[in-house]
Amino acid sequence: MYFPSRLVSPFRLPSRRLLSRAWLALFLILTGLTHAASTITSLTVSPPSDIAYDAITGKIYFSTDGTADTNFQPCVIPLDPATFQLGAPINVSGVRCGALAISDDGQFLYLGVELGSVARIDLATQTVDAQFDIAGGDAFDLSVLPGHPHSIVVSGYNTFSIAVLDDGVPRPATAYDYNFESLAFGSSADMLYGTPSNGASSSFDRFAINANGIALLDFTPNLLDNGSLISDGTLVYGNDGQVVDPKTRTVVATLPVTGHVCPDLARNRIYVLQQTNTNGDYTTNLVALDATTYAIIATTPIPAATEQADRVIRCGGHRLAFICGFSNIVIVDDDSIVPSVIGVSPPATTVEGAGTLPAAGQVTLTDAQPRDTVINLTSGNLSKITVPAQVTIPAGQLSATFDVTVIDNALLDGPQTVSVNAAAAGFATASGNIQVNDNEQATLSVFLPFGVTQGGTVHGSVFLSAPPDSDIVVHLASNTDAVSVPATVTIAAGHTTGTFDLAANEAGQFIGFEIAPITAHVDNWTDGTGSITVTDPSYTDWTSFGNGAGHTGYQAILTSHRQYVPGWSVTYDSAASLQQITVAGGVVHVAPSFLYATTAFLSGLDADTGLELWRQSLSNVNSPSAPTVDAGRVFIQTTATNLTTQPFGLLYSFDATTGQPLWNSTYTATNFRPVTPVTAINGQLWLDAGEEIGQAGFDAAQGQPLFSNSVNADNGDWLPAWYNGTLYTWDQSVLNALDPATGVVLWSTAVTPGGPQVSRTPALANGHAFGVSSPSLFAVDLTTHAVAWSASANFQGTPAVAHGVVYGISGGDVLAYDAQTGAPVGIYSTGDTIWIDQPIVTYDS
């Protein structure tokens, strides 16, 4: 539903319990004619809380608390906006009613009822189909998922949450502490927009929806005034006049007037209900704007609207309707504001030389006319498409068909888009496009260099088997996120080659060698495919837990299945126990763990000989974390041994080659906590700051704190992970996605809770997060935020992932699964009893 909410909560309107049957009587007040084709009608009805329009039956529905004759039982009343006739009330159980939402197929109307329920009305039978409990909350706003009439979003679920309900059953994940009185979907059911209630901080919030429920994706402060928004499926409009692109979260335009907005894409118009308040007296205008230029087209004064108005909706014909004041619905019928328009729809695609396609095109009217409408047709390219000069829509009808003839021009010109234009006296010109695919054949080829280093850019070429007669737009695509290519490349007329740049992405994890295919496509021609090998420049290093910020456990070396042969060894103090090491630039970094240490150290060894190159002592600290290396620096964290020292956490940076100290930083932390390694990439650091603080972020260059938050604050021994610009944490049964610069939680996905586990670190690759909630292994899709698959065994630790396969440890076995589907791939029994750890996967595993 694309409608904004009311300016006040539906359950905070004045009491209406003294109403009588007279309120249900319909009083027609003709308040004036602005011109011969404009009628403004104010209807006094039982005080409406909300209105909605069913385009299938052409009825307005308004919710009301009822009358004395209905024992003040909440109800929904149908209203014919053409005849102003009321239908029979549809009673629901409860005290007071509020927000309405209608499914886009006209099957159901949903009504929020005070004291914790939502009623669903079957519009075909005009009866209450079901009434759902919403855990004691009040439905501040409702919205039906586009294309899913049985599924709704409720703001106010359990009082302080936004929830998704399927036939009244809530999905597991809810967005807690969000009470919005204005919700709207875009063009799909997986993204919801909202603004906080009046009085709250102003922001534009986006929520991601999947099979598991709903989660806050992000919020942008001060983008829209809170209280009201509406979507046309592409853009979002606020009653402050701001027009927002929800994908980029930016203001793309400001309307010349402010007020409640109603978009009408069929007419390329935006209607704004503009009001000015002078000492309680409202002056109201209905303003029509061009939806492309936002210029004012027409303005109609509404003298009947002298009180505060709310929610303007289209209601068929040339009409708009809105609630005004305590007990009025105003219907405006004005063809200067809402004109009739013609449309033309040729077939979407065809093939050159197809000949005449009978009745393949259609012209339409938004409103039936009292006399025949003659529409003149023209083709934008007569060498491709011809249409009849005229087609007539008979009086009282809404459409007519016409033939489309497809010409063969014997040219190699690829797909061509041809416009078909329709014009009629008194109507704006309309046009529709048809893509004509070439029946002359050609073959594409893609040529790429043999390889590219991760982070680098190379040139690629697309070749055509014959020079075309027109410019050809070739579509490029790759099925891997290891590389980026432009969406299209153009081969000029008379030439056979087009060039493009290919970028090898820095994925935040070590990929070793990956073959990236590139496909070139033109409709109705033969595709071309080429491939390039993407190489990680540091594939012989091991820089952190899991070998990179994605913690995949992948080491891109060739073992050639050789047997393990011991090389050099170094012995440290018998009181020390070794942790994971790092290897970078020919230096092995070792930070032994000491029980109740007073002097710990970080040691650098020659990777070829094992000789100690340098050692840096750390006084009066507990045992340090395992090291992490990034951009030529090595990082460790630890805690002070002095219990009175505050802040308690210590973070160190050293030159990874020489061991030279670079900086140290402090942060508040708890004592006697497990100290886990640092996650580092792109000049930022993130770490587990203990059971009271949670997560902390730092600048890698100087050690300056960036943020701290309480994510995973109740659990120790975990590492954040980074993937494609987003930070992730895994807390047994919840995957959190966070902004790496601010620590703000973008969304969360819960899985079935498991038993206790020591490691709470996910591995991220191939667009998924893989984690263990013992005893199960889970894969979460990072695009849909839904659990993609799970596998049950006795899993512990962090899984590893490489080459599209996920590896998990269960007892003494390593189990392998397809990363996309979760299908079992194989099992390897080690013969040992393994408690918890992460497998290491090599290039030829």
UniProtKB/TrEMBL annotation:
Judging by the UniProt lineage, the source's domain of life is Bacteria
The residues the entry assigns to the signal sequence are none
- Specify the Pyrrolo-quinoline quinone repeat domain's residue ranges: 603-824
This chain belongs to the protein called: Pyrrolo-quinoline quinone repeat domain-containing protein
- The organism is Chthoniobacter flavus Ellin428
Upper lineage is: Bacteria, Pseudomonadati, Verrucomicrobiota, Spartobacteria, Chthoniobacterales
